[in-house]
Amino acid sequence: MAAATSELLTGWCLFGLALLAILIFSWVYVRKYQSRRESEVISTITAIFALAVALISSALLPVDIFLVSYMKNQNGTFKDWADANVSRQIEDTVLYGYYTLYSIILFCVFLWIPFVYFYYEEKEEDDGNTCSQVKTALKYTLGFITVCAVLLLIGAFVPLDIPNKKNSTEWEKVKLLFEEFGSSHGLTALSFSISSLTVIGMLAAITYTAYGMSALPLNLIKGTTSAAYERLENTEDIEEVEQRILRIKSKCRDGRPLSSRDRRAVQQLEERLRTLRRRERHLETIEKSWWLKFCEAIRPLKIVWGVFFIIVALLFTVSLFLSNLDKALHSAGFDSGFIILGTNLTNPLNMLLPVLQTVFPLDYILITTIVMYFIFTSMAGIRNMGIWFFWIRLYKIRRGKTRPQALLFLCMILLLIVLHTSYMIYSLAPQYVMYGSQKYLVQSNKTIDGQPKNVTAFVVKDCDADAPEDQCIVTRTYLFLHKFWFFSAVYYFGNWAFIAVFLIGLIVSCCKGKKSVIEGEVDEDDSDMSDDELSAYYC
């Protein structure tokens, strides 16, 4: 009993420390990237809160797995205190935790973030009447609220009946779990709205996370170009542009005006010259900084981390491929959302987690690390690509120079990606996400000297779809992910797209050369107002 209490306290302590770390990280991350010239209190608070909610939501999955696993001993029996009522209370607590956080996410995505975004946009255009700015922001936000209301209404009345399959007794068993899970129309409506946002999060993960998983490790391995070499090249470019401007202007020495074509050429060259001189100032600053010397000193460590991250990315991709292949070969098909009960084709991650379960809390540390890995690679993808609307780049994410609107977009995208992260983890380790480390007892006849005897023995087995309902507790995460079969089907095809984009991003990242030491800090098409804010922290 004392050991069990110790494990529980350890789990809650780790969760508490994770919450504290999330709040500190959210504050540091937003303050690190926000523009010092355009920072606003309301947008800063909104970004920090939204980022913290995203990270806290991602931490619910390890907690859910831990709680269902903690209720059973390693010999397959329930712990003394884990009777039916206590188990139900724990399940309900986790479920309410999900709905609380997901309700906050709906509030952020459909009300708070859009309102703050449009309010700040109006403030830039009309710097006078605050009441007018609030009214205009509310008018635009009303469109988001309408979309949310429509999703809630559809979710409240959408039919959940799944087409019957012949010889699908296991599927019938899961259907009963779904019927028991959240029978209220209100909870169903919330679940449908979150699932709709998860589809958008899937598209964001395909775009940003898949690319970030390839770009982040390869950037660490390849490093950046030399600041001294870049400065030498930049000086040569400045001299060349100045000479071209002088050659064009020499045409009007006899008093004749320049042609319209020459005037346009001079204007473009002068803009190019201003950009090059800004680059010169940035390169001069970084070349003299102690931070560059520190980055050069830790270069071997960055290569090691890059190799480790690319191995992890390939491990995830192989696991995801095998899991999707298993669904394609052994699931009940499209009409069931490609849901599979049990694992027919094992993958590296599914093999590793049972081994780590023997030493508490290594498996929970690993699953938490995987979740955070997806979050950080998503951040890396957004930071490298910027925020796009189809083929139009809206904002760049730059250290110390990111506009408030871009930070709000960043946090909203991360909120949506986090919603899809749980399904990604389930795809990587379906058996573990469904039951954790639970085991159950199977009765069998004992054999002595090759002859069956009337001696009853119990064998300990890992929980799976064949286990009795009263012996294994399914995580709330699993039931929440598969409440609507048609969303599960979309996620299945999204996983194939994720694998394809990762492989394409890996090829592109391998073919690209080294990044500039001031990558993204000075661009000719840069519309930010903070080009002249110099920062010495490049690496």
Automatic annotation (TrEMBL):
<keyword id="KW-0472">Membrane</keyword>
<keyword id="KW-0846">Cobalamin</keyword>
<dbReference type="GO" id="GO:0005789">
    <property type="term" value="C:endoplasmic reticulum membrane"/>
</dbReference>
<dbReference type="GO" id="GO:0038016">
    <property type="term" value="P:insulin receptor internalization"/>
</dbReference>
<feature type="transmembrane region" description="Helical">
    <location>
        <begin position="406"/>
        <end position="426"/>
    </location>
</feature>
<dbReference type="GO" id="GO:0061462">
    <property type="term" value="P:protein localization to lysosome"/>
</dbReference>
<dbReference type="GO" id="GO:0045334">
    <property type="term" value="C:clathrin-coated endocytic vesicle"/>
</dbReference>
<dbReference type="Pfam" id="PF04791">
    <property type="entry name" value="LMBR1"/>
</dbReference>
<keyword id="KW-0175">Coiled coil</keyword>
<keyword id="KW-0458">Lysosome</keyword>
<protein>
    <recommendedName>
        <fullName>Lysosomal cobalamin transport escort protein LMBD1</fullName>
    </recommendedName>
</protein>
<keyword id="KW-0812">Transmembrane</keyword>
<dbReference type="InterPro" id="IPR050854">
    <property type="entry name" value="LMBD1_LysCbl_Transport"/>
</dbReference>
<feature type="transmembrane region" description="Helical">
    <location>
        <begin position="484"/>
        <end position="508"/>
    </location>
</feature>
<dbReference type="GO" id="GO:0031419">
    <property type="term" value="F:cobalamin binding"/>
</dbReference>
<keyword id="KW-0813">Transport</keyword>
<feature type="transmembrane region" description="Helical">
    <location>
        <begin position="140"/>
        <end position="160"/>
    </location>
</feature>
<dbReference type="InterPro" id="IPR006876">
    <property type="entry name" value="LMBR1-like_membr_prot"/>
</dbReference>
<dbReference type="GO" id="GO:0005158">
    <property type="term" value="F:insulin receptor binding"/>
</dbReference>
<keyword id="KW-1133">Transmembrane helix</keyword>
<feature type="transmembrane region" description="Helical">
    <location>
        <begin position="42"/>
        <end position="63"/>
    </location>
</feature>
<dbReference type="GO" id="GO:0005886">
    <property type="term" value="C:plasma membrane"/>
</dbReference>
<dbReference type="GO" id="GO:0007369">
    <property type="term" value="P:gastrulation"/>
</dbReference>
<feature type="transmembrane region" description="Helical">
    <location>
        <begin position="96"/>
        <end position="120"/>
    </location>
</feature>
<dbReference type="GO" id="GO:0005765">
    <property type="term" value="C:lysosomal membrane"/>
</dbReference>
<feature type="transmembrane region" description="Helical">
    <location>
        <begin position="12"/>
        <end position="30"/>
    </location>
</feature>
<comment type="similarity">
    <text>Belongs to the LIMR family. LMBRD1 subfamily.</text>
</comment>
<feature type="transmembrane region" description="Helical">
    <location>
        <begin position="303"/>
        <end position="322"/>
    </location>
</feature>
<dbReference type="GO" id="GO:0035612">
    <property type="term" value="F:AP-2 adaptor complex binding"/>
</dbReference>
<dbReference type="GO" id="GO:0140318">
    <property type="term" value="F:protein transporter activity"/>
</dbReference>
<dbReference type="GO" id="GO:0032050">
    <property type="term" value="F:clathrin heavy chain binding"/>
</dbReference>
<feature type="transmembrane region" description="Helical">
    <location>
        <begin position="364"/>
        <end position="394"/>
    </location>
</feature>
<dbReference type="GO" id="GO:0072583">
    <property type="term" value="P:clathrin-dependent endocytosis"/>
</dbReference>
<feature type="transmembrane region" description="Helical">
    <location>
        <begin position="187"/>
        <end position="211"/>
    </location>
</feature>
<feature type="coiled-coil region">
    <location>
        <begin position="259"/>
        <end position="286"/>
    </location>
</feature>
<keyword id="KW-0170">Cobalt</keyword>
